[in-house]
Every structure is written in structure tokens, then in C-alpha cells.
Write a structure and sequence with these properties.
Protein name: Phosphate transport regulator
CATH superfamily: Phosphate transport system protein phou homolog 2, domain 2
Largest sheet: none
Number of helices: 6
Pfam families: PhoU_div (PF01865)
Family: Belongs to the UPF0111 family.
Coiled coil: 56-90
CATH topology: Methane Monooxygenase Hydroxylase, Chain G, domain 1
Order of helices and strands: HHHHHH
CATH class: Mainly Alpha
Strand content: under 5%
Radius of gyration: 22 Å
Number of strands: 0
Structural class: mainly alpha
Number of domains: 1
Keywords: Coiled coil
Distance between the termini: 36 Å
Mean pLDDT: 93
Length: 239
């Protein structure tokens, strides 16, 4: 009888180890997939700065080209996200953190989709009217720079998830403080737009749309960072 119990314990232990091994492999794979999406998105974030500069110069040809580029990147990100969600579905309930991963993939895809919307509206705006306000141009460039900083921190945080989750947590934490900068710039931009474009309703409405979407990109990057932070904490607590 005693021998049987030992045998059962041994089998149970092996099962437990096997499950942990599978969990660990799944996490590594998901972290790799997250990095892949982040890299695919990286060009899109860089394009955002080019979009606001081209908008300030009313360069509709450049904006048409940027829209095409951002649209292609969006499609690439969407297809990678579909692969990741299929992978997550196949894992079933192996990981407690599946929902966090899913939400990060969805947030990153949302960033790609919104940036495409920004590029398209910027093209429409430059085709129809000029923004002659330096204040607005400077604020738009600053907000694009802040989003780039936010995204760079997020990328480093995702990179660190496997090797150094504590660093991942700290980097993701920095995203939140940069997002406060964006909020401040957004308020200044909104005020300047109403003050300087009140004679040009088409420009005002299109720019309002663009600025709202830029603010939403910043928020979505912050949401992704919050989830990365939680993933990092989870890894630190477990090891």
C-alpha cells in the first residue's frame, strides 16, 4: 500500500513538472510574439512624427505615401495578432495570464488601426486646407515625440519580460509618467485649435479628430504597459 502511494506521488509530481514546463514554453512563445508585434508597430509609431511634420507642411503627396505605409503595417500587425489569438485559444486554460496577453495584443493592434485613421485624416486635411499655426505644429510634434518615448519604453519592457521581469516592471511604470505629458500637451492643443482655427471649420473638425485619436493612441499604449507591468509582477512573484 505504502509503495502505491509513493508511486502516485511520483506520477503527480511529474505531471506537475510537465505542466510547469509547458507553461514556461508558452510564456516564452507569447513574449516572442509580443515582441514581433511591437517591432512591426515600431515603424508606424515613427511614421506618426512624419505625419504631423508633413501635415504642418501641407505635403499631401507625402501624406498619401505615409498612409499607404501605415496601412500595410496595420495589416501586418492584424495578421500577427490573429496568429497570437489562435495560439492563445489552443493553450486553453494552461496559463493564468492568457487574458493579459490577449489584451496587450488587442491594444497594440488598436494602436496600428488608429494610426492609420490619423494618417488618412491628415491626408484629407492637407488636401483641403493649410494649417498655418506654428503653435499647433509645434504641439503636434511634441505630442508625437512623447508617444515615441512611451512606445520605446513599452518595447524595452516587453523585451525584459523573459530575462529581467523586474526591469520590465520599471520600464512599463515609466510609460505612465510619459502619458501625463501627453495629457498636458493634449489640453494645450485643444485650446490652441479652437483659438486659431475657429475661422476654418473643416480644418478644425478634421484636426480635432486627429488630435483625439493621437490622445487615444497614447492611452492605449499606457493600457498595454499596465498589463505588461502585471505580467512582470506575476513572473517576479513566481520565481
Amino acid at each position: 500500500m505504502h509503495h502505491g502511494v509513493e508511486h502516485m506521488a511520483e506520477e503527480y509530481y511529474d505531471y506537475d513538472m510537465e505542466r510547469r514546463r509547458r507553461q514556461s514554453l508558452a510564456e516564452e512563445s507569447l513574449n516572442e510574439q509580443l515582441l514581433g508585434v511591437t517591432r512591426a508597430l515600431s515603424d508606424t509609431i515613427t511614421s506618426m512624427r512624419e505625419i504631423v511634420i508633413a501635415l504642418a507642411n501641407a505635403d499631401d503627396r507625402k501624406l498619401k505615401e505615409l498612409h499607404r505605409k501605415v496601412k500595410e503595417a496595420k495589416e501586418r500587425v492584424e495578421s500577427m495578432k490573429e496568429d497570437a489569438l489562435t495560439y492563445l485559444a489552443r493553450l486553453g486554460d494552461l496559463l493564468n495570464t492568457s487574458t493579459l496577453y490577449k489584451d496587450i495584443f488587442l491594444s497594440l493592434t488598436r494602436v496600428a488601426q488608429m494610426t492609420e485613421g490619423i494618417a488618412y485624416r491628415a491626408y484629407l486635411l492637407a488636401s483641403n486646407t493649410n494649417i498655418t499655426s506654428n503653435t499647433i505644429s509645434e504641439l503636434l510634434t511634441s505630442i508625437a515625440d512623447s508617444i515615441q518615448k512611451e512606445f520605446d519604453r513599452l518595447e524595452v519592457a516587453i523585451q525584459a519580460l523573459s530575462s529581467n521581469p523586474k526591469k520590465g516592471y520599471e520600464e512599463a511604470q515609466l510609460v505612465t509618467s510619459i502619458e501625463d505629458e501627453v495629457d498636458n500637451l493634449y489640453r494645450q492643443l485643444t485650446y490652441s485649435m479652437y483659438r486659431e482655427l475657429r475661422q476654418d471649420l473643416v480644418a478644425l473638425m478634421l484636426l480635432r479628430d486627429i488630435v483625439d485619436m493621437i490622445e487615444e493612441v497614447a492611452d492605449t499604449i499606457r493600457d498595454a504597459a499596465e498589463n505588461v507591468k502585471f505580467l512582470a509582477l506575476y513572473r517576479v512573484a513566481r520565481h
